[in-house]
């Protein structure tokens, strides 16, 4: 059991949730403010996506990321910043006349394009999604060669990757990246559970994925929707860290919309009730071997 917990808040995500929550952070200012509220509530790390301020849809804009990051850095609140680098892998395929076409919503980027905000802003952490999967009704594309190229770019930037694994084969490939020397230091894993149609959000699946991690791995796990808090507790009990936030779950309880700060406060209470504590951002940097911001 882990009694010294790193608590990540995934602030807004990129999913189709803008119309499902009345106060979902959408603009750069809203995202930064919500991230700062989460940090004040006890989050060790804030995990950041950005959205189109007009539509609430997906954005990969470096300028949007820059505004969020600068607002956090210019505040009097400390937080470890983790920028997503997993966008631009969405394929909605349709076969017409024997040819595969990408339907509306398809959004594909090269490894260099995915990395651009990270290379420009140099956060302490960024995500590296370690494989492809059927992600709801779309195909999320991450070929092995794309991921190797992306891992090299992250390594050259001196940013620590968080290796996001949505299925057991993703853990296998992440270990391969480690073996090829593309991941420096103790690898950091995030086990992503409950996303159709990847790894299920249950104890057996989490344990199976945990048991395949390298011996020196640092790991966290999360579940989506109503599995957010059960999986947070289960991760801590099995030796991992925690992640909560509006990216993964919109509700504090049935029918009650949450804020990021409320989700963080509840997760911190769970950790304390299990006999643990949540690390500060400064302690997190030391635990993960991160450079000073």
TrEMBL record:
InterPro entries: Aldolase_TIM, BKACE. Keywords: Metal-binding, Transferase, Zinc. Its cofactor is Zn(2+). Pfam families: BKACE. Gene3D superfamilies: Aldolase class I. The keyword Membrane does not apply. It comes from the Bacteria. The keyword Zinc applies. PANTHER family: 3-KETO-5-AMINOHEXANOATE CLEAVAGE ENZYME, 3-KETO-5-AMINOHEXANOATE CLEAVAGE ENZYME-RELATED. This is 3-keto-5-aminohexanoate cleavage protein. The lineage of its organism: Bacteria, Pseudomonadati, Pseudomonadota, Gammaproteobacteria, Oceanospirillales.
